[in-house]
Design a protein that fits this description.
The complex is a heterodimer of chains A (202) and B (398).
Chain A lengths: L2 E2 L13 E2 L13 H5 L7 H11 L2 H9 L2 H4 L11 E5 L3 H4 L7 H4 L5 E7 L6 E7 L7 H9 L3 H18 L18 H8 L8
Antiparallel strand pairs in A: 1-2, 3-5, 4-5
Helix pairs in contact in A: 2-7, 2-9
Chain B lengths: L1 E7 L2 E6 L11 E9 L2 H7 L10 E2 L3 E9 L11 E4 L2 E2 L5 H4 L13 H8 L5 E2 L16 E4 L2 H4 E3 L6 H4 L5 H11 L7 E5 L3 H12 L4 E6 L2 H11 L2 E4 L5 H8 L7 E4 L11 H10 L9 H9 L5 E4 L12 H6 L3 E4 L4 H14 L10 E4 L3 H9 L8 E4 L9
Parallel strand pairs in B: 11-12, 11-14, 12-13, 14-15, 15-16, 17-18
Antiparallel strand pairs in B: 1-2, 1-4, 3-5, 3-9, 3-18, 5-6, 6-10, 7-8
Helix pairs in contact in B: 6-7, 6-13
Classes of the chains: A alpha+beta (202), B alpha/beta (398).
Amino acid sequence: MGRMSTAEQRPWPVEVQLVVTQRSHGGTSSRTGAAALAMEGDMSVRNLILGALAAGGGAVIARRKLDPRRIHGRHDDPTVDRWHVVFVNRPQDAVAPDGQLPAPLAELGDAVEVQVRRAAGDRGTALAARVRTPVPAGLSEATTRILGTDPRQAVRTALRHSKQLVETGEVLSPDKPGSTRLTLTNLPLELATRHARAEGRL
Amino acid sequence: MKALCWEGVNEVSVEQVPDPQILNKQDAILKVTLSSVCGSDLHQISGYIPAMKAGDVLGHEFMGEIVEVGPEVRKHKPGDRVVVCSFIACGRCWYCEHELYSCCDNSNTNPAITESMWGQAPGGIFGYSHAMGGFKGSHSEYVRIPFVDHTAFTVPDGVDDQSAVFASDSAPTGWMGAHLGGVQPGDVVAVWGCGAVGQMAARSAMILGAERVIAMDRFDYRLDMMQRHVGAEVVNYEKVDVDAVLRERSDGRGPDVCIEAVGLECHSPGPQYRLEQLKQQTRVLQTDRGHTLREAILACRKGGTVFVLGVFAGLVDHVPMGALMNKGLTLRGAQQHGERYIPMLLDRIASGELKTAHLATHPMPLEQGPRGYDLFKNKKENCLRAVFRPDGLSPNGG
């Protein structure tokens, strides 16, 4: 499980900072952080095609138009992950009691660096994570995002799930069984909803 | 079970779909007794909000009887007669704690879509596309209610179903427009749109003390309902100069609060309407028509407030930012924070202060859902709202 320590880089003043260094998976085969991050990547070539369609869709256009980072520039090194942050409406000791991270983040093991800090204005806790190892960039990023193997997707999902667990006690399930069927026109939407918690601006 | 499903652009039908299940410990299953159409359904049906999949169950304004609850449900139990807010709220995130329930952080299971479009994801809604969570809608025999202790409200015994169902969405949406629009005693309030939400906004403004409420539409039957059931002054915008009328009736100042209750498919008189439609069809020049929004901004008095209740999804061309800035206006909008208002509104309905039952002009069995949407969308037979009853009986039990 995660233990409290001090990270070398502090993008903000932190009161408590946690870094996940190790995670054991009792009763199951041990999985490295990198493997854990790739666990959502079981997709077929068909989905690659669907993803390409989606990548050409409106969401991408909207992102290009609206994303302020495209105006101000992204990181100098695009293979260095940025911090992904969720705002949890609970105190720090409820988010990481005794230094133990919420399970969805703890399960990512050494692959991620995690920070827990007081949110501005005492509005709960900021829970942040980033991938330790170089992340895909350029064409590789586009491909891994479509395939669902980009390590940042697992980080986003884990952060969203952690926030929900701490705030509400459970992770809200999408409605199922579904009543919809696949059609030619909803292929991009189908792909978007498959990655609905793994993508976005988080 | 049977449900009314979206099958493609301008195509709905009653289909057999899987029964809902308890998926979370705080879920409940509701047996739907009444489920109303809403103007914002038309944006989904017409394809203006392109996040629907064939087979999606429509409907988000509803009530019913709880028949099953999850193990961590505390407030409700099977047998409770409840009205359900169209927006799902966890009740514990920062937004819910600050009564901004439609901004709930935890109820939209597809946050990436709206984050990409709008920067942040609002909460989930029943039957309102996959951009808003992909939850099955209420035009069905049963529906799953997530976070039921926060999303559903027991209906007082003195309130009949046909009145209570509109506490789900129309009434709290209208109330929110007047309340968060800052209506004060003595204000002059203008309301664009005499549908159910517009009527509720006008009535709410009166209850909050507005001295004059002026409502606009182009269909005589809707204007007549507004005048007869709400008591607001009415204006047919196809027959008069709206700006001149509002200026005259507000003693030359302009309305203190302007409430836009129409949204992205608004109509406008004159040839510019065709141009608006053309630009909208490109999906590039604009995705939403903005005539009513522009008119509200231009009509509003200096320092006044424009509150947007009508649903907008994307981009509106030619928004008069010069007027907004130089007149010192406040522009505000929201999807409805119903959990904040529903208990209070049910009390007002029970006391007779707020009347809602007249909105249900076309009660009908769920099997007639496609006809109901045809009447509603095309303003046939003076339809204001078609309200479906899955058990096949009329809302009055007949």
